Amino acid sequence: MKPAAKKIVVMGLGYIGLPTASVLATKGYQVLGVDIKRNAVDTINEGKIHIVEPDLDLLVKSAVNSGNLRASLEPEEADVFILAVPTPFKKQDGEDTRVPDISYVEAATRKICPVLKGGDLVILESTSPVGTTKRIAEIIKELRPELFDSPLPPPHDSPVHVAHCPERVLPGHILRELVDNDRVIGGIDITSAEKARDLYKTFCNGQIFLTTSCTAEMTKLVENSYRDVNIAFANELSLICDKLGVNVWELIELANKHPRVNILRPGPGVGGHCIAVDPWFIVDAAPDQARIIRVARQVNDTKPHWVIARVKAKAARFRDPVIGCLGLAFKANIDDLRESPALEITRALIADKVGRVMACEPNSNGEFTEFPLYDLGRVIAESDILVVLVDHDEFKMIDREGLKEKVVIDTRGIWR
Ligand SMILES: NC(=O)c1ccc[n+]([C@@H]2O[C@H](COP(=O)([O-])OP(=O)(O)OC[C@H]3O[C@@H](n4cnc5c(N)ncnc54)[C@H](O)[C@@H]3O)[C@@H](O)[C@H]2O)c1
């Protein structure tokens, strides 16, 4: 399908915004990426990238070389504005509050307001609490009331269209999933949703489902909460089984033989900046109703403490224990350390001086950790206690014969 709009501004050039801007540019749109970080803007204008994602470097290079992708600190007039800015927790005294902070979305909206014109489409891609898309429309209405002097009867149309299209991509597979995933698009009115669909149809292979902006916002939050609750069930089972002397891995394998049971695998906790964060947006909005969602978060958040206690109990048997922590990333075969329970556990073991901690993260060069990393062979050779924290492929291939003298705490069940 031919592009329906000529020029697109993408606000926020991070893990979501930059791949989106690049894909759109390679589809023939004139794309201006906007970020508040000069370094990101300069790097992209040189055809290079400031984040790590497979194949993104080639895509950005070709998009910039084609002349279709530019980056800037300031937005310009366009037909479509896509907001892909952070939606973290609010901070208080430097600590996360678990209350969503939509100030980045609000700031990006204010920034585009002076260049908006009637008929433009504004799309929120950031994972957002319910009501954020409507809030964008309110801000535009406050700052540019003339844009809403519509001759068309509400609620069917508005001169500026505002929609939400939550992003569901998996880090490490962003470029494929950006194009292949199904999409849920919610508008503040029907025309907004339809206009957004017409844009996504030009670069997405997946199916597109239209709904209201609030339902689209909630859909994304619910997807991650569903994962979190299911992981919490598995993690809770691991605690119960430990108390009862039952092998949790065997138990889950057997229970999953039932045709309608599919229990996930326990782990050291839940990390990343989505599953560990988004359920709190629901809890914040409906604290009395979101009881399972809240408890699931608490179960997953406390699992690292349980792992730490187990390591301490084993370490107490040694005079000068050497503890090998295998993996730091928040999940297998990536380098991303954000909200990682493996990192939390390793840091706590070091801070509590439980022993000499030797950490191994095969996907990292140690640039983002305040402690040294060791190669796998050395960690295996020198450790008294081996704690498997991430199910990286490298660890699965270790010959278990060589571990017979070691105490093994396998939080991922890879050596069962
Ligand atoms: N990364 C993922 O895998 C993923 C997946 C699904 C959804 N999301 C959601 O997408 C949103 C963006 O996430 P991300 O991972 O791309 O974040 P990110 O931190 O990688 O990128 C956000 C970018 O926005 C820029 N920015 C902040 N304020 C701005 C402003 N006012 N104007 C222009 N740029 C601004 C930042 O400098 C940063 O470069 C979040 O809501 C996140 O929850 C992320």
UniProtKB/TrEMBL annotation:
It holds the Pfam family UDPG_MGDP_dh_C. The keyword Isomerase does not apply. The keyword Translocase does not apply. This is UDP-N-acetyl-D-mannosamine dehydrogenase. Belongs to the UDP-glucose/GDP-mannose dehydrogenase family. Residues 324-416 form the UDP-glucose/GDP-mannose dehydrogenase C-terminal domain. Gene3D superfamilies: Cytochrome c1, transmembrane anchor, C-terminal, NAD(P)-binding Rossmann-like Domain. Coiled coil: none annotated. It comes from the Bacteria. It comes from Desulfuromonas versatilis. Keywords: NAD, Oxidoreductase. The lineage of its organism: Bacteria, Pseudomonadati, Thermodesulfobacteriota, Desulfuromonadia, Desulfuromonadales.
